[in-house]
Design a protein that fits this description.
Length: about 425
Amino acid sequence: MSVEVVTLGCRLNAAESEAMRALASGEDDLVIVNSCAVTNEAVRQTRQAIRRAKRARPDARVIVTGCAAQVEPETFAAMPEVSRVLGNREKFEASSFLFPRTVRARAERPWDVEGEAEIRVSDIMAVTETAPHLLSGFAERARAFVEVQNGCDHRCTFCIIPYGRGNSRSVPAGLVVDRVKALVDEGFREIVLTGVDVTSYGPDLPGAPSLGLLVERILRHVPALERLRLSSLDCIEMDDRLFDLVTGDERVMPHLHLSLQAGDDMILKRMKRRHSRAEAVALVERLKMRRPEIAIGADIIAGFPTETDDMAANSLALIDDCDIVMGHIFPYSPKRGTPAARMPQVAAAAIKERARRLREASARRKAGWLEGMVGTTQRVLVEKGNRGHAENFAPVQAARGGEVGTIVEVSVTGVEGETLVGVPA
Ligand code: SF4
């Protein structure tokens, strides 16, 4: 049987899984589990995925890689199901997927000392370049994702990612432009720029180009590109050129997902975030002033350690103050190895209740936002049958389907659940 890749976590992991699938294509009886370490729950799911894979394919060799493998390799090396543990650098070396032909499954592992799997994990902080073949990015059927940056130089107190991904490094702008051009030539109408912290793009490159400059170059050198979408942004690091393009160029989609995390200044300080509540609110006001149709999504953590009821109320009010219509609400869970895990924790019941209120508030705002689009015409990228997303990322279901990957005009006639419904315009 061929190589199977199990992917957990973010879009970057999905892109890397495609790169590993290509690298390991000559091997057989191999399962690669590309892990995530963002929460303890993600690590638990990784272990579960490993056991499930081995139960389904007892003869296969299981390789574990990704951020959880990078941060805690011993955890996985100790699992009897695992043959090899790879770091986030080693996952791009073809030799990482080679096994001596004679070796089959766990019972025959000459490198197997004291029952532990082989560990190939180096210091990720020493990595200074993005992996070239990662540029291939990955494509869903309707849109393609291009990784422009990896790693992170920040050290938010709740986050383990920098320890899994290393320091921030950027893909040279010329390579990104070439990749976008190639994907557009392949027929993709929408490209999403991704990374771990895309607003950190550039300082490690000659001339320190900003993310705004990169976007400007893509728009100029790929005139056939119809829709450019940005993945999660750190609001305080949005440069002026990017601001002007997001608010002034109709090929940049009017949808921003902001990594806000909280709406209370003391909590933002204890998270080691770089923005204040007022700065987040002011940015959204400026965005909406220049381009009122911009839709705001945001990540918010409920119940960060030391958060009081009043601080939680400030985060709740942020949903309205920043007009967050796509709230991604994360109940705080302590991540081993992060400073926040050592802070006084909030009671589980309070975390749950605060998350419920945040979700409720975001859903209420979303309902109003969707209702406000009834009677309008939306340009929808068809993703599946008669479903897709509008430019502002509102989900849309049309009365009649279209070809996946095409853009259709839909007259919105109503809202069903959290989806706009309409007829072809
Ligand atoms: S910016 Fe903060 S939350 Fe985001 S990856 Fe870096 S350390 Fe983690």
